[in-house]
Structures are given as C-alpha cells and as structure tokens.
Design brief:
With 62 residues, the chain is mostly helical. The chain has a domain of 41 residues. The chain is built from two helices and no strands. The longest helix has 17 residues. It is flat, with a radius of gyration of 16 Å. The two termini are 15 Å apart. The relative contact order is 0.08.
C-alpha cells in the first residue's frame, strides 16, 4: 500500500498530490488496447472482453 511506504500522513498527502500531477501531465496513449476502469466508470460502455480482479461469488470487489 502507498500509505505504508510513506513515513507520515503529511508525506502521504504530498505523494498523492505528486501522483495526481503526473497523471494530469502525462498525455493519453489512445493506441493502448487496454482500459483500466472501475465498474462504475464502465457502466453503459461495451467491451469485447472484461476481466474482473479479486472477485468472490456474491461479493462486489471494493
């Protein structure tokens, strides 16, 4: 976990801000054939194949 890698809560918040900035600045590569998404963000979209990670019968992954 990211929180375990940081020495304090303040440093964790700083690190999250750094990661957010990296994501904002990085141009999207639309040639990538994969989409990493939450279940909610993909609602209403169609895909040829869907892989769900950490799924247990009757339990929605969190």
């Amino acid at each position: 976990m990211l929180a375990a890698m940081e020495e304090s809560p303040i440093r964790l918040v700083e690190r999250l801000g750094e990661l957010q900035q990296i994501i904002k600045e990085k141009p999207q590569d639309y040639s990538c054939p994969f989409v990493l998404s939450t279940i909610h963000a993909s609602k209403g979209l169609e895909y040829d194949a869907v892989y769900l990670l950490d799924v247990i019968d009757g339990i929605l992954p969190a």
